[in-house]
Amino acid sequence: MSPHGGDGSAAPPLAPSLSGPEPWHPVTVGVPGPEFEARPPGQYAFDFPDSVCDGWSTDLLTLRFASVRGAKHRYYRQPRQDAARAAVHEATGSIVFAVADGVSSASSSEHGAVESCRAALERMLHLLSGSQGPLDFQDVAHHAAERLRQLAQWRLGGKAPEPAEVARLYATTLVAGVVRPDRTGGSVELCRIGDSGAWMLEPSSGRYHPLFDSKTGSDTVLVSNEVAPLPQVPDRLEGTTARLSPGQVLLVGTDGFGDPLGDGDGHVGSLFARHLAVPPPPLWLAHVLDFSRETFDDDRTLLAVWPRATAEPR
Amino acid sequence: MADTKGVLLPAYVLADESGSMGPYQGELSDGLVSLCEGLRAEPMIAAKLRLAVLGFSDDVQVRLAVADMRTETSLPQVAIRGLTNYGAVFDDLLDRIPSDVQWLRGEGYKVHRPVVFFLSDGQPTDGKGWRRPHAKLIDKSQTPTAPNIIACGIGDAQAATMVEVATRPEFAFVAKPGTDIGQAISEFFHALTASLVASGQALGSASPQLVVNRPEQFTMAIDEVGQ
């Protein structure tokens, strides 16, 4: 593993006369996947760039996220089907966020992922303004599902779509949540639909505490293929709460990150524990997240929240 | 450190080598070659598959052990022989699949539910004897690594039998009446390669689904049974 190339040797400069910082080299973990120049997605996928990142801090919390297109989509000319969004609720200083992973069998899942994030954020901001109690995630999830239904109806020229039609167009997983800051860190509320994940990372020990059950836990014989994504909303939504304390980082990621992470005790876990010890520049997070590792070629999205007391951002 | 090396789909091709397949040995061999070459042409997909080819008649013989097709250089060779003992297939898979999954997990991989592609040109010559090992093989409570089975019948293989062998009605196919058997075998391998490539593309996504393409010149067996 090396963030500066697999063999540790320095790459030649681009031109002898150039001076200044070295270009970033690919990050590889173990055996890298094939190297190739990314191919363009379809001509109407121009609203879904290959990579996006964001980062900012409030007085008490720091946020970073990045979302990068996987090698499989870069090769087979598909757009990035992951999405993430985050916003600050100005009245309370809380950070609301959403991470979505469009289901590849849905024909416009990249739209579904973005729209479900947008709808979830809008609803969480609205609910935070109306009540100080726990977020009603059932309401948030239904709001996101309704957005997908409306989108499908518009797409079908006004015809009311069956749930299966909505799913065929826009099915997506979703993790949505809020961090409410306080003097000792923050309180976290999360919900999820589908198999994206969330962890509490302690960079000093390198330990990742999963906040949801894993589909690929070391105790499961086979990886589960059973995912019930939006627009389905289960009667009992999977939700959880946690404390975000100084020295910890809240992570929310799609399975493009969660699968290679596994239990977090391998090289991928070590890589991110090191690079997330303090908030990295957003572009650097995207670069590290775009690491190359054989067979892990899905889109990857990772969102992280630090309490400001932990460390100042770089 | 324990890293997940990848998430793999073990795929098993069960090729009927009974005597009645004799005239079509060439198509069977060519189909296997095209399957191997098709996967080698898609290294990103092949990296996530492990392919085994098993020939069956009176017993099961390994023609290709669970292999990474990016690096496998040998081509599976079939040998025409004996009868059409379905029971031997399912008895063999009852031992083989859990053992292979355990081995792959021991190598540091996570494993998707295995998939079996079953091709036969005849009715089982072991009567109803195959039903007990088959039932045990596909029962997830008895066999946690129970595979998905896609069954394709050609020649004398009947639609109702293929529906029984397959784990879902839409996974059972029979060649259309009057179809040239050699051509049907070629189409089987063409669809098999396409199914594996499409399934490989869906692996590691939010909804890793098994994609099963109907071979040209085949119909869904359940439609035949219903007529």
Automatic annotation (TrEMBL), chain A:
Segments of this protein annotated with the region Disordered: 1-36
Limits of the PPM-type phosphatase domain: 69-274
Feature: compositional bias, Low complexity: 9-21
Pfam families: PP2C_2
InterPro entries: PPM-type-like_dom_sf (IPR036457), PPM-type_phosphatase-like_dom (IPR001932)
Organism domain of life: Bacteria
Matches recorded under SUPFAM superfamilies: PP2C-like
Protein name according to UniProt: PPM-type phosphatase domain-containing protein
Species of the source: Streptomyces chattanoogensis
Automatic annotation (TrEMBL), chain B:
Top-level taxon in the UniProt lineage: Bacteria
Protein species of origin: Streptomyces chattanoogensis
Gene3D superfamilies reported in the protein's UniProt record: von Willebrand factor, type A domain (3.40.50.410)
Protein name: von Willebrand factor type A domain protein
SUPFAM superfamilies registered for this protein in UniProt: vWA-like (SSF53300)
